Amino acid sequence: MKFKASTLHKIGRPLVNYVYKNPKKNIPKILKVGKAVTGNLFPEATWTMPLDVITNPNNIWNEFVYRTIEQTDRELLTNLLLTFGIDAGYIGTSTLRENRDKLKCNIPWIILMDPTSACNLKCKGCWAAEYGHHSNLSLDEMRKIVTEAKALGTHFFMFTGGEPLVRKKDILTLISENKDCIFLAFTNSTLVDDQFCEDMKKAGNLTLALSIEGTEETTDFRRGEGVYKRVLDAMALLKKHKCIFGTSICYTSKNYEAVTSDEFYDMEIEAGAKYALYFHYMPIGSDADTDLLLTPEQREHVYREIRNKRSHKNGKAIFTMDFQNDGEFVGGCIAGGRNYFHINSEGDAEPCVFIHYSDSNIREKSILECLRSPLFKQYYKGQPFNDNMLRPCPMLENPQALRHIIEVTGAKSTNLNCPESAEQLCSKCDRYAKNWAPKAKEIWEEKERFKPFTQYYRDTDEAKNE
Ligand code: SF4
Questions:
Q1: Would you identify the CATH topology of the domain 105-457?
Q2: 108 C-alpha vs ligand 1 centroid, how far in Å?
Q3: Residue among 369, 368, 372, 337 at smallest CA distance from 355
Q4: pLDDT digits (tens, 9 = 90+) for 121-162
Q5: CATH 3.20.20.70 spans which residues of the chain?
Q6: d(CA 160, CA 284)
Q7: What single DSSP character describes residue 85?
Q8: Considering only CA atoms, which of 54, 106, 191 is closest in space to residue 377?
């Protein structure tokens, strides 16, 4: 595989240089080569959609592509594209798909890890604020995670926390040692400076997702006074240094209109953000405010606004993912290692960044052993948790599922301050799930839905014989 990857990189680099000479003319030619090399690994649309984007100036994504080329350091964009396309995309995807069948468990495309629990902010609804500053993954532990995961096919890692940039020195060491991986750090922006922008550009495989909650008022309401301005300052720095960055947005009953408004999208595009990752508020922890959960009408607003703004005719030129409403594109819940899982700063392997229960720790087990633990196996066997992909979650929309998983596996709460039982957590979601179900049904049945590639346990011979 290493030989194959280095050969593809040797071919890929001159191809990217060739694109830079005349993107409009040369990208269509490259797409043809990509399709020929990867065969049927990816759906046909993987090739036809980009072709339309490149050749059709009326397609909103046409603007996105040429703006990205113009605003990004050439060497950085080249490295990111090659690593994403070859190591994480082609080689990683084929390896982990084989391993899922062979090893009969979930193998993730992405792993999230918390380098530290430390954070200099105290945002409403964020568990990190409760955890304190005493818990960290060592550099060697992060190395172990990356090395073992790469052997399984995983080449994409995200840093969560805590504020990951508290550990920026170790992060830069790790990413420099693993040039065949892509890294993304979720950050509150306050530790981004000129030097860090230059360092991440030099490493060539890191992007930042800056947390923001809409307007100055809605951001500072949740994240603290003055934080909105510091996010804008960080965006300006990253743009000046020609780095790739995006935003991370948690939508709640208080900010759902602000974070889906035209003004917010325009501000992000103007500031240089290339992607926006949307997350539904989750009522985690003993002091979670359930009033921040959205009503069915508020969630429908988010669903429709984000999809409208993706329109290639009159949308907004920024790549968006709405993790709670986009389940149809990935086959529902992606946790438990199906596409990703989370390792907290104590080394506990958790199915999801929002599900703070574990029965395995990377200080005692290998990554593969964690993926084969009873807790992760329950995810593997239970997915999808609902055939309506607008109700993907075993906690938020199907709380009975998480109660069952925790009961049969005996997984323990990993809340570092105040353990929360599955019953305490799920009881905060029961009413939400009940209210959302009819609205989700109505929206889901509106049209024919996308059918992604899946490797559900329920489709295996073993499950059919059970
Ligand atoms: S457990 Fe819930 S929040 Fe986590 S990936 Fe699955 S659906 Fe999403």
A1: TIM Barrel (3.20.20)
A2: 14
A3: 337
A4: 877 666 665 556 679 999 999 999 999 999 999 999 999 988
A5: 105-457
A6: 16
A7: I
A8: 106
